[in-house]
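Aim 2 progress. For Small VCP/p97-interacting protein isoform X1, the working sequence is reproduced below.
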Amino acid sequence: MKAVTIALRFGYKQAFFSVAEEKRAKLAEAAERRQKEAASRGILDIQSVEAKRKKREQLEKQMEASGPPAGGLRWTVS
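Predicted structure tokens for this construct:
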């Protein structure tokens, strides 16, 4: 019914895109919900796991930003 109302107001092409966008949004929400459910399966304290993941990501970003350590190890092959 919604698509018919949109089709009458804006034309067929816009109605098709609106319905497609609405469907895409619903599919994205469902996928996100499934990911959250799968991520929390078997985990008792989800907040602590998320905090650890964020901390690990921050450490990785800091290491990338700092670049290679100065005066690092040298490899010699004889």
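Residues 3 and 16 are 8 Å apart (CA to CA). This observation will guide construct design in the next reporting period.
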